[in-house]
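Is 4'-deoxy-4'-aminopyridoxal-5'-phosphate placement plausible here? Inputs below.
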Amino acid sequence: MSKILHRSIHADLPVAVGGRGIELFDAHGKTYIDASGGAAVSCLGHNHPHVLAALHAQLDKLAYAHTGFFTTEIAERLADSLIADSPDGIDYVYLVSGGSEAMEAALKMARQYFVEKGESQRRHIIARRQSYHGNTLGALAAGGNEWRRAQFRPLLIETHHIAPCYAYRGRLAGEGEYQYGERVANELEAKILELGSDEVIAFVAETVVGATAGAVPAVDGYFKRIREICDSYGVLLILDEVMCGMGRTGTLHAYEQEAIVPDLIAIAKGLGGGYQPVGAVLLGRRIYDAFATGSGFFQHGHTYMAHPMAAAAALAVQDVVREHGLLDNVVRMGELLNHRLQERFHNHHSVGDIRGRGLFRGIEIVADRGDKSPFDPARKVNVAIKREAMARGLMVYPMGGTIDGVQGDHILLAPPFIVSAGQIDTIVERLGDAVDAAVARSVA
Ligand code: PMP
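Reply from A.M.:
I modeled the complex. Tokens:
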């Protein structure tokens, strides 16, 4: 019996002993195709030689130096390369150890920005009901996943939630996509006015929703309207790209496809590809200058921030992504994956929606695709699909959450950027069998 307190105490987890390319191996010699990159983390797959060499080299030089005493060459190089690779509007980087830390830092940065500017009355955070921003208390408060929040509610800071942009379930009959996007974006304006137009700090959203609903992009025009509303009321726009960022959707940042520039961006997972725990907040000059001309520091910090080993991993991963032109493969293989999913599932009685961008794709499982009614949550169909997939040597990421009273079962696919066409075929074939087997058991 494992002595580690895992997320699920009774989970009987296989022991991972190795990995190569897009595969992981367990202690019994069984091979699994990592079609979810863990949780959209392993963008380069496993044991990539360039990343391993970079880690060994950094370890030989310097494993750790506290940021209160030193900066390091490797962390500076990472910051420079992230800024150089990002579109205009990103001028500074705050390096942390993961996604929740990045979101906590972004929320506090946004609050301190207004304190520095003499607008300390601003105190409200608005987010969306379909969202996950991390499990630490601030990030959990911003998130909208009721199941994750419920028992901790007395400990959470007050946040406010508006509708998600979730066309599959939210769009009214006869409503155009654009109208729908505008209608749900306008909920932000109504909420800002309700709370007091000069009392709101920030609006927080995942550019493409990940861990609550499996790769849900917003409809065209939604984020443009959101940006307009934020600008009208001086509200900061924080985009959580912990899951959907760093190339996962085919552009380095997912927001590039929305033709907007956010004020703060949280990134993690694909930044270091799982080789080290690492995350970051990306910010523009405007925020930085408020700190620089104000108190002169950001009142935050962690012992392991800008860790040299984490920086070495992230720099090496991003070098490979850039130098091997892997974003082109994300776009090409993403299209193929979408095509294969459509072929396999577009008439499937239990698949209601197929969606996503790049190598970030989701399917929504329903009991009846006609009226979109979900399975009884007690059946945990998403978990059953994961189990059936693992039995067939395939890792897919299961999600089940309640959004606006509708329980959903979702499966996320986020294979490494190096995936090949043949591997995509195998992934969809095994997933199809796993869905059929899990659904057959659920209705039996
Ligand atoms: N934001 C999003 C969108 C995420 O998907 C996650 C992790 N699933 C987090 C934040 C939290 O990141 P971490 O688990 O690294 O703390």
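Short version: Residues 52-323 form a domain with the Aspartate Aminotransferase; domain 2 fold (CATH 3.40.640.10).
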